[in-house]
Design brief:
The chain is of the alpha/beta class. The strands form 3 sheets. The chain has a 7-stranded mixed β-sheet with strand order 3-2-4-5-7-6-12, with helices on both faces. Helix 7 links the parallel strand 6 and strand 7. Helix 8 packs across helix 12. One of its GO terms (biological process) is organic acid metabolic process. It holds the Pfam family Transketolase_C.
């Protein structure tokens, strides 16, 4: 994992959503070409207050309240990015991103190729994603696989405040479009020491959250916390889990996946998206292609279900939680 650029800098304990705000502030202060735009990001500070106070600091020409029109937000940002600005757009919830899908995949992702390198698209599309907060329909989707499938896009999902600030800085500085998905279930779940000064965490590098020898558990976003809880519980039974937080889903750190699996010979993949077409399948395929001869047991998937995301009463059942993850790991280890 990368370190802060100034190891002597002061730090403060931040939640994940505060780290988003701190990351935006630092990059806007560092680079006048960085701007923020989206619904209610200005005076209201965003639906989760991730942009609170930015309009007072940088003015309404760099913190732009837009109409309720996701296609217009991203389409406008593509044009800005093509001509040298670095827009960071906010989509209020991932379930609202679909009207902007055409702008993202047909234009932002293809601009470099279409123009044979004459233009790039240094654009970040931020969106809170995932469930667990008792939200209405369209507010709890976990559809990261849609964007991983599209060449020309990077897809980033942090799980800690430190990584959030550093990965967001890397995304903003990247010359190509980045989908930056923020796990809103853990927006305010815990705090972590985050340096005040800007720093970066490299895109495309996984983080081993827990070393282990019996089974590799691959996950990301909000699922990292129940996965870590499951690993600690299973340690009391003598099962030593290695937990790998992928952090960037595109480009995916295939080397980290391969190296961890070589050590353990067993794997479980945990994500809250539906099982069918989920990224667990891609991770398993990578293992099969590269390190099949190390495999000791079938690879298990602990995921959401192939249903529309449920409301309220069934939400806790839908999301992988520590007990279900433990069952999946035991099944693999005991094969």
């Amino acid at each position: 994992m990368s370190q802060a650029t100034d190891t002597e800098t002061e730090a403060q304990d931040l939640t994940l959503v505060q780290a988003v705000r701190d990351g935006l502030y630092g990059e806007m202060q560092r680079d006048d070409d960085v701007l923020v735009m989206g619904e209610d990001v200005g005076e209201n500070g965003g639906v989760f207050r991730a942009t609170q106070g930015l309009i007072e600091e940088f003015g309404d020409d760099r913190v732009i309240d837009t109409p309720l029109a996701e296609s217009g937000i991203v389409g406008t940002a593509v044009g800005m990015a093509a001509y040298g600005l670095r827009p960071v757009t906010e989509i209020q919830f991932m379930g609202f991103i679909y009207p902007a899908f055409d702008q993202i995949v047909s234009h932002a992702a293809r601009l470099r190729t279409r123009s044979r390198g004459r233009f790039t698209c240094p654009l970040v599309v931020r969106a809170p994603y995932g469930g667990g907060i008792r939200a209405p329909e369209h507010h709890s989707e976990s559809k990261e696989a849609f964007f991983v499938h599209e060449a020309g896009l990077k897809v980033v999902i942090p799980s800690t405040p430190y990584d959030t600030k550093g990965l967001l800085a890397s995304a903003i500085r990247d010359p190509d479009p980045v989908i930056f998905l923020e796990p809103k279930l853990i927006y305010r779940a815990f705090r972590e020491e985050v340096p005040d000064e800007p720093y970066t965490v490299p895109l495309g590098e996984a983080a081993v959250r827990r070393e282990g020898t019996d089974v590799s558990v691959f996950t990301w976003g909000a699922m990292t916390r129940p996965t870590m809880e499951a690993a600690e519980n299973l340690a009391e039974e003598g099962i030593d889990c290695e937990v790998v937080d992928l952090r960037t889903l595109s480009p995916m750190d295939e080397a980290a996946i391969v190296e961890s699996f070589k050590k353990t010979g067993r794997a479980v993949v945990v994500h809250e998206a539906p099982k069918t077409g989920g990224l667990a399948g891609e991770i398993i395929a990578t293992i099969q292609e590269d390190v099949l001869l190390y495999q000791e047991a079938p690879i298990n998937r602990v995921t959401g279900f192939d249903t529309p995301y449920p409301l309220y009463a069934l939400e806790d059942y839908y999301l992988p939680e520590a007990a279900r993850i433990e069952d999946g790991i035991r099944e693999t280890v005991e094969f």
